[in-house]
Design brief:
The protein has seven helices and nine strands, in the order H-E-H-E-E-H-E-H-E-H-E-H-E-E-E-H. The chain is of the alpha/beta class. The chain folds into two domains: about 25 residues; about 220 residues, Glycosidases (TIM Barrel, Alpha-Beta Barrel). Helix 2 links the parallel strand 1 and strand 2. It is globular.
Length: about 260
């Protein structure tokens, strides 16, 4: 073999050996990168990327049938407060065989404490996110997060905001990943201003409306994901499921996933 041939072979071997590291460095598993098996799913001309979010309440999911509908992402519950969602590990693993981007979320419960919940969430998703975060992990804060009326109880609202900020900061320090916040305008508006909220974090807004844009909570100028309905139908899932869209095209959600996830 000539020197030039040996150099070419060595270079090819080096590129192959570096591919997994480059995929991780870009924040995505290799299947979503330029030469990956899933890139074609995100190359279409659809004006918005679409997806769903699931939890134990969806039961057994036929992921192959679900994937054939052309969905671009799935967000799945990892925990309800400190308690693991019993279907999370299975859902995360099964969805890995598809070309849908994944994200884990935790339903935040005020009475479970910020530190305990951050520790529980990190323990659940540390291994899941080891191959690349795909979409950012999410904290879900809504009416069920607090047993009371935060709009009427200002002291409780201040404590809730402080606990949520403490949770976010604790998880992000432990994981090295910035979280996304799921909420609704009519809940978030009850929280007082806090220097760490929302803190530049992406917004996943719940707003069930036929309007062209969702109702926005204070603290954000734009939304990243929009949960538009809780009554969507999806083949592979019995019953209704939450339907979501990304604020951009399929190629844009892939770009967002590649860049997102780093702690501020």
């Amino acid at each position: 073999m000539s020197l030039q041939s040996r150099f070419g072979a060595a270079l090819a071997g080096l590129i192959v050996s570096l591919a997994p590291a480059l995929a991780r460095a870009d924040g995505l598993p290799a299947k979503f990168r330029a030469s990956g098996d899933c890139v074609s799913r995100f190359a279409g001309s659809d004006p918005a990327a679409t997806g769903i979010d699931v939890s134990k309440f969806q039961g057994d999911i036929d992921w192959q049938r679900l994937e054939r509908q052309g969905l671009h992402f799935v967000i799945m519950r990892a925990a309800y407060g400190r308690d693991p969602d019993p279907d999370f590990e299975r859902n995360w693993k099964d969805a890995d065989a598809t070309c849908m981007l994944r994200a884990p979320y935790q339903f935040f419960l005020a009475h479970h404490g910020p530190s305990a919940q951050a520790e529980a969430m990190h323990g659940l998703v540390k291994e899941a996110m080891a191959g690349g975060p795909e979409l950012p992990p999410v904290v879900d804060v809504e009416a069920g997060s607090y047993n009371g009326d935060l709009c009427r109880d200002r002291v409780a609202a201040q404590r809730f905001a402080a606990d949520l900020a403490a949770y976010l900061n604790a998880f992000e320090r432990a994981s090295g990943r910035q979280m996304m916040i799921y909420t609704a305008e009519n809940f978030w508006k009850c929280l007082p201003a806090h220097p760490d909220l929302p803190g530049g974090r992406p917004l996943w807004i719940a707003s069930y409306t036929e309007a062209r844009a969702p109702d926005m909570p204070p603290g954000w100028q734009s939304w990243t994901f929009w949960q538009r309905t809780d009554r969507a139908k999806a083949e592979g899932i019995d019953g209704k499921v939450d339907g979501d869209r990304f604020n951009g095209s399929p190629s844009a959600v892939l770009e967002f996933a590649a860049k997102a996830g780093q702690a501020p």
